[in-house]
Amino acid sequence: KIPAIEAYMKEHNDYPPNLMEIYAENKMLGFNVPREYGGIGTSNFNMILYIEEMGKTASTCFLPFMMNNSVAETICHWGSEEVKKKFVPALCDGTAWASMAFTEPDTGSDPKMLTTTARPDGDDFIINGTKRFISMANKPGYGVFICKDLSLAGQKNNTTAFIIDKMSPGISCSKHYELTGLEGADTCDITFTDVRVPKGNILGKQGEGFNILLRWIAGERIQQAAGMVGVGQRAFEEAKKYSLQRMVNGMPMGYMQGFYWMLGEMKVKINACRLMVYQAVCKQDAGKSFEVDSAEVKVFTTPMIQEVTRMAVQFLGSYGYSKEYIVEKLFRLAMHQGVVASSLEINKTIVGMTALMSK
Questions:
Q1: Cα separations (Å) of 78 from 15, 81, 101, 213, 320?
Q2: 289-324 residues labelled b (16+ CB within 10 A) or e (exposed)
Q3: Residue 353 needs a FRET pair 20 to 30 A away by CA distance; which of 84, 208, 240, 325 works?
Q4: Do 173 and 192 contact (CB within 8 A), yes or no?
Q5: Is the dihedral of CA 22, 75, 102, 110 positive or negative?
Q6: pLDDT at 317
Q7: Mutual orientation of helices 344-357 and 291-316 as an angle, nearest 10°?
Q8: pLDDT band at residue 111, thresholds of 50, 70 and 90?
Q9: Angle, in degrees to the nearest 10, between helices 326-335 and 291-316
Q10: C-alpha dist (Å) from residue 236 to 60, 113, 171
């Protein structure tokens, strides 16, 4: 169904409104969610196999697929029984679109710089502020929003995660951002003006907001890298196909030494990335700490897959630079891995600091 989804996205610059229903019908939601909450009850490993295959299409429709699955799992991990029963089923049956929101106009990683606030008011909190680059922000459903909790003023850990209905009164969204390589991706600003949220919608405990974000984004990095492995694999396959079709001096171009060396290098890079992703997700499924592993995955796979797609463009020459060929789109899509789901530089910092601090 992805070609039909892509055709809709190209025409409307947005996801089809029934995309989540399509995923639900095909048993693609709630991978790592227990069945009692509407999930499939399988592993993160099985989910990333889907993401890898979706990456081969160069479609950005893998983003909402990842988001619904990862947010549902996050709520299951941190939420009370009441919270899980209230919010998770809709993320698994296709009736709700998920979002996760931390980034703001002036920060993407520093919780001390958050300006979106949650002020206690009786049995509720009043939310005010703006979140930036939030995927699926204007789609009906739920989002996990990390806010500065004013009831924890003066404390070191003063961020709290709230599950908020994105159709609540007082919420408004900007137009979509036009992003390189992520055509049709529904990414925009979401602004809260005196939005009332029940205290029962707190995810985890007050003050745990940033920890919830860190665990979620570690999983997102692995999922993103799995998609990029698929991107690299498709780029390799397109380069190989072209190298066998294009004739130079009476023989296929691919049999020229320079080109089959390039193919060999591409294949090795992709396989190394794939193995690293699989290793990290197996650690996640085993219930072990995987945050640093996911940062290592990001640091390694980002330049590898970006180089693989660049080499595919070189294989096809001017055709590779033409939007008539999928290689051009694969190249642009690979560029997003360095800046989305935490920047490459932040992940280098995580890996380096961990190495210094470890015994």
A1: 29, 10, 16, 11, 45
A2: ebbbbbbbbbbbbbebbbebbbbbbebbeeebeeee
A3: 208
A4: no
A5: negative
A6: 94
A7: 140
A8: very high
A9: 150
A10: 19, 42, 44
Specify the pairing of strand 187-198 against strand 124-135.
antiparallel
Looking at residue 17, its pLDDT comes to: 95
Where do we find the tokens 């998609």?
227
Cα–Cα nearest to 76, from 108, 44, 119: 44
Q: Pairing between strand 97-101 and 117-121?
A: unpaired
Phi-psi region of 133 (alpha: psi -120 to 50; beta: other; left: phi over 0): left
Give which of 217, 173, 189 is closest to 105, Cα–Cα.
Answer: 189
CA 40 vs CA 27, 44, 49, 201: distances in Å: 7, 11, 15, 24
% of the chain exceeding 70 in pLDDT: 100
Residue 86 has pLDDT above 90, yes or no: yes
* 25-45 per-position pLDDT tens digit: 999 999 999 999 999 999 999
Task: Tell me if residue 158 falls in helix, strand or coil.
Answer: coil
Residue type, 218: A
Overall average pLDDT of the 113-131 stretch = 97
The first and second tokens of residue 117, run together, are 């606030």
Tokens of 37: 């909450």
**Would you list the DSSP string of 231-251?**
HHHHHHHHHHHHHHHSEETTE
Of 111, 34, 123, 114, residue with least CA distance to 79:
34
Q: Which amino acid is at 32?
A: N
**What H or E segment, with its residue span, contains residue 100?**
strand 97-101
Structure tokens given for 317: 């020459």
